[in-house]
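Q: I'm writing up a methods section and want to include an example of the input and output format. Could you take the sequence below and give the corresponding predicted structure tokens, formatted cleanly so I can copy it straight into the document?
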Amino acid sequence: MKEVYSYQEIAHFIENDQAVTFTRHLHVQVTAAKKHHDSETIHVTLVLLVGEYTIGEVRYEYASMEALLDAFDISDVEEFFELLDDE
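A: Here is the clean output for your methods example:
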């Protein structure tokens, strides 16, 4: 039995309320900031992009910056962070 299908092959299932799933590789722009000086909580906005097109935005909180780095498997010495201008 086939495991993956084209949209043309499964469109009728979707029309009849059958759930489908697919996987795509996305680019995620992560913005992180502390909102309160006395808290370690990091507020994060994840912007999901396919090419130049924004397809979604998710807001999430991490207990600390270390938790955020762990979630994305980032070493604390990797150099790819950018500072944002104050708005």
